[in-house]
Design goal:
single chain, mainly alpha, Methane Monooxygenase Hydroxylase, Chain G, domain 1
Length: 219
């Protein structure tokens, strides 16, 4: 029974890491679409979203099967619980990549807009947070997980700056309101990716320490 259980856990770990790699690729493509304002790349991201949805369901079903068959306890139970939550966060990150793609499709109709906001720094920090949160999961690295959490304030700060600048642009260029709203929403979607990466890091800490640190308990 133990050997079968260990094999099931190993298979589950491979599934969640595979999903993580796929979601990370989607975020990379979304960031590339922002940089290039590429509606064709945006369309590709939207069309491929079903792959992440299917894998998310597979992981959840695998978790439920293991819970029903083996009734794990202690660290093994924490692992299953963490995977269920991380699985949901990864699927939501995939949704945010799709949301960004939809903004790019709309904005592509306004290439001659008067105002642009450079999301390079925000995108780089967000992508790094996601990568590090997944690295922390792979290596059960609590220090890396905590580093991810501390990076979230940087993303929030850039989003606040984007809001201020875009709000001013709305006053100056009211005819471009639709474009500017979509431009601002990109910051919201990137910020949500960062939030989900933070959630993943928190679940890694829970997995390692057995302590729930949400809602500022780590401060």
């Amino acid at each position: 029974m133990t050997q079968h259980f260990d094999r099931e856990l190993d298979k589950l770990k491979k599934k969640i890491l595979s999903l993580g790699a796929q979601v990370e690729e989607r975020v990379y493509l979304a960031i590339k679409a922002i940089e290039k304002k590429d509606p064709d790349l945006a369309t590709r991201i939207i069309q491929l979203d079903y792959e992440i949805d299917e894998k998310e369901v597979e992981v959840e079903e695998e978790c439920l099967k293991i819970l029903a068959l083996y009734q794990p306890v202690a660290i093994d139970l924490r692992f299953i619980v963490a995977v269920i939550k991380i699985n949901n966060d990864l699927e939501r990150i995939g949704d945010e990549a799709v949301n960004i793609a939809e903004r790019i499709q709309s904005m592509a109709k306004h290439l001659n807009a008067s105002f642009h906001f450079d999301y390079t720094e925000m995108a780089e920090i967000t992508a790094t947070m996601l990568k590090r949160s997944l690295d922390a999961l792979v290596n059960l690295d609590i220090d890396t997980a905590f580093k991810v959490i501390t990076m979230d304030d940087e993303v929030d700060g850039i989003q606040g700056n984007a809001y201020s600048q875009i709000k001013q642009a709305m006053r100056e260029h009211p005819a471009e309101m639709t474009y500017l709203v979509n431009l601002y929403l990109i910051s919201r979607h990137l910020e949500r990716v960062a939030d989900h990466a933070t959630n993943i890091a928190e679940e890694v800490i829970y997995l390692i320490e057995g302590e729930i640190i949400r809602h500022g308990k780590y401060l």
